[in-house]
Design brief:
The complex is a heterodimer. Chain A is mainly α. Chain A has three helices and no strands. Chain B has one domain. The longest helix of chain B is centred in the last third of the chain and has 43 residues. Classes of the chains: A mainly alpha, B mainly alpha. At the A-B interface, α1 and α2 of A face α2, α3, α4, α5 and α6 of B.
């Protein structure tokens, strides 16, 4: 510790000596400068120079107070506001992009859902159509069958009626020919058998 | 009033636009009568300096009234903003990242020199055309540079740089010589700053005065005056800008040299 203090003291002493030498050297140089100017018919009034230096020293805080400090603060504030505005705009842009992305996702989902629903509806409609068509076909077949049965029934009925009529006519004709009543049960059966045989032969 | 003795306030007349009268006479004969010099007294000098400071304060006050607006609409505020940004860029570019804290000093020099030079476009004398007052500006600049150097590197560190690299043995003599040369070099920065400004502005005035003398006319009892020096107005306006820039640029360079170790 003692060594450090001694070194510091010697360092300060050396610095003071160097500073003193520097001041003396500068003084000599300035004196030389003034003398040189005198040779060139240029005179310097050191008092006026020091007065001017005082004026500059007084002007310095005025410039600092009226110019650099307030204007620097105003520019800094404006830049801060601009940065804040840009940040806000950037945030809004990010938010808008997110909203747009969400909207697009929702739109895509809605489109997909709508497409699915349409497909389902189409399938349902097709199934319904198939059902209706098969029902209609069945119904038509039933109606056709029923109609055919009715036709067959009517046909059979008519045939029976026609046979009866033919028998009656035949008997009536034969009665006219032989002049007797031939409307006996036996005759009738004979005619009927004949007609049946004819029908079979046909 | 003793301060005003020895200087004719009539010489504070527009040397660009004056026609006839005292200005013409002064232009034609003044140089011979006063040995080519129009040296005002200390009082008049300080009066002009005060007027210039008043102009600066007036402009800054007008500019300041527009700082509260979000977008600066006042033209003077807009000019102040552009000047601020320009000087800030200059300080940051030359001194480094820590250059912003020297901005008030840089702005002080720029404003004073520029307004003084503009004042000198219309009047016969201006502070920047005076070697003594320019030396005052240079003294503050160099003193501030040395102060900042000492504050950044310490006394030993700052003056130690003047001795160059550490040499041992007999080579210490070389270090001593380097130290002496550096001290003279630092002192000569006063010459560099003050004489350059003085030479440019005063030289411009002298050229203008001689051109005006070429335009002096005599019509019997009446005297007329063609301000040929007015032709120099554009180049003198450019000189105002350049000289303000050069002074502040050199100041920034000097500050940058002594404080560049601050970033390491």
């Amino acid at each position: 510790m003692a060594n450090h203090e001694a070194e510091a003291k010697s360092g300060n002493l050396a610095a003071s000596l160097i500073g003193g030498l520097a001041v003396i050297g500068a003084g000599i140089a300035i004196q030389g400068f003034v003398e040189t100017l005198k040779l060139g018919d240029l005179t310097i009034n050191i008092g006026q120079s020091l007065s001017m230096a005082g004026v500059v020293i007084l002007l310095f805080p005025v410039v600092k107070l009226f110019f650099t400090d307030p204007l620097g603060a105003a520019i800094h504030e404006r830049n801060s506001q601009l940065e804040a505005t840009f940040t806000d705009a950037e945030n809004l842009r990010t938010e808008m992009q997110k909203m747009r992305s969400d909207y697009e996702t929702k739109l895509t989902a809605a489109e997909s859902k709508a497409r699915e629903e349409i497909q389902t509806a189409i399938k349902d409609a097709q199934a319904l159509r198939q059902t209706i068509m098969s029902e209609a076909t069945e119904r038509a077949d039933e109606l056709v069958k029923k109609a055919q049965a009715e036709i067959e029934s009517e046909k059979a009925k008519l045939i029976v009626e026609l046979r009866t009529k033919v028998v009656d006519l035949s008997l009536a004709a034969a009665e006219k020919v032989i002049g007797e009543n031939m409307d006996t049960e036996k005759n009738r059966r004979l005619v009927q058998d004949f007609i049946n045989n004819v029908e079979v032969a046909r | 009033m003793d301060l005003l003795q020895g200087w004719n306030p009539g010489t504070i007349l527009p040397n660009l636009l004056a026609w006839g009268g005292g200005a013409a006479e002064e232009a034609a004969h003044g140089a011979a009568e006063h040995g080519g010099k129009h040296e005002p007294g200390f009082g008049w000098k300080m009066l002009v300096v005060a007027i210039i400071i008043g102009l600066i304060m007036g402009l800054l006050t007008v500019a300041r009234s527009g700082y509260k607006e979000r977008v600066f609409k006042n033209p003077i505020t807009q000019c102040a903003e552009q000047l601020f940004l320009f000087l800030q860029q200059l300080a940051l570019g030359i001194i480094g990242k820590h250059g912003r804290k020297y901005l008030p000093m840089v702005a002080t020099y720029w404003l004073f020199i520029f307004v003084s030079c503009i004042f000198g476009l219309f009047f016969d004398w201006t502070p920047t055309a005076d070697l003594s007052l320019n030396l005052g500006l240079a003294i503050t600049a160099i003193a501030y540079v040395q102060w900042e150097g000492i504050r950044t590197n310490g006394i030993a560190g700052h003056f130690g740089h003047f001795a160059g690299p550490k040499l041992g043995g007999i080579m210490v003599i070389v270090s001593g010589m380097i130290f002496l040369i550096e001290i003279i070099s630092e002192a000569m920065k006063l010459l560099s700053l003050s004489l350059r400004l003085y030479g440019n502005i005063h030289g411009g005035h002298e050229v203008l005065l001689n051109l005006n003398q070429l335009g002096a006319l005599n019509f019997g009892p009446h005297e007329a005056y063609i301000p040929l020096g007015g032709l120099l107005l554009p180049i003198k306006l450019l000189t105002c800008l350049v000289q303000a820039l050069v002074f502040t640029l050199l100041f920034c360079v000097y500050i940058g040299l002594v404080t560049s170790h601050e970033e390491h």
